[in-house]
């Protein structure tokens, strides 16, 4: 076990995190999933990916470090995965992630996974309940080859990340 990536021992997968639920119900933000393959990264209970399917995603892969959390997502593609490497089966045009930005010690590994899993013109949508995120995140994203745009929605912060220089789908 290392300090750089979350592990199944974290036992965070079975909890329905608040910003993930908010992203899952933000149909304006999720309109981009229609007709696309989607990765629900750090999926936990799968609320973002299931919402993407409801909104017309062609397929969703659910990825989490916690195999027990994935066991609750039946009938869909699941991958046990810890951050720091690309998720097998990609790249994906859309990556969704709810409440992934709460441990700064994991930011580099998370961004490495997003960069390696994101299609050339893809977009990652990350949600967080806080109104202020760590100020170094945009620069860290740039160092990983990603743009970083964040906006405060009614009750959560939405981050859109895409490859630098790409024409993202958003």
How do the SSEs run, as a string of H and E? HEHEHEEHEHEE
Task: Give the uncertain stretches in residue-range form.
Answer: none
Task: Tell me the major beta sheet.
Answer: 7 strands, mixed
Q: Percentage of helical residues?
A: 10-25%
The Rg value, from CA coordinates, equals: 14 Å
CATH architecture of the domain at 17-89: 3-Layer(aba) Sandwich
Mean pLDDT figure: 89
Strand order of the largest sheet: 3-2-1-4-5-7-6
How much of the sequence is in beta strands? 15-25%
Indicate the structural class.
alpha/beta
Write the CATH fold name of the domain at 17-89.
Rossmann fold
Separation of the first and last Cα atoms? 36 Å
Look at the structure and name the CATH superfamily of the domain at 17-89: Vaccinia Virus protein VP39
The number of helical elements comes to 5
- Would you report the number of β strands? 7
Shape verdict: globular
**CATH class categorisation of the domain at 17-89:** Alpha Beta
């Amino acid at each position: 076990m290392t300090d750089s990536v979350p592990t199944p021992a974290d036992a965070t997968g079975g909890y329905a995190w608040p910003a993930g639920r908010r992203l899952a119900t933000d149909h304006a933000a999720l309109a981009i999933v229609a007709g696309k393959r989607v990765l629900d990264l750090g999926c936990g209970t799968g609320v973002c990916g299931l919402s993407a399917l409801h909104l017309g995603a062609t397929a969703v892969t659910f990825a989490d470090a916690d195999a027990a959390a994935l066991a609750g997502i039946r009938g869909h593609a699941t991958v046990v995965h810890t951050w720091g490497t690309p998720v097998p089966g990609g790249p994906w045009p859309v990556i969704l992630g709810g409440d992934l930005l709460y441990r700064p010690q994991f930011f580099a590994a998370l961004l490495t996974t997003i960069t390696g899993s994101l299609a050339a013109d893809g977009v990652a949508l990350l949600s967080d309940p806080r109104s202020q995120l760590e100020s170094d995140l945009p620069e860290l994203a740039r160092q990983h080859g990603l743009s970083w745009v964040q906006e405060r929605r009614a009750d959560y912060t939405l981050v859109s990340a895409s490859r630098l220089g790409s024409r993202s789908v958003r």
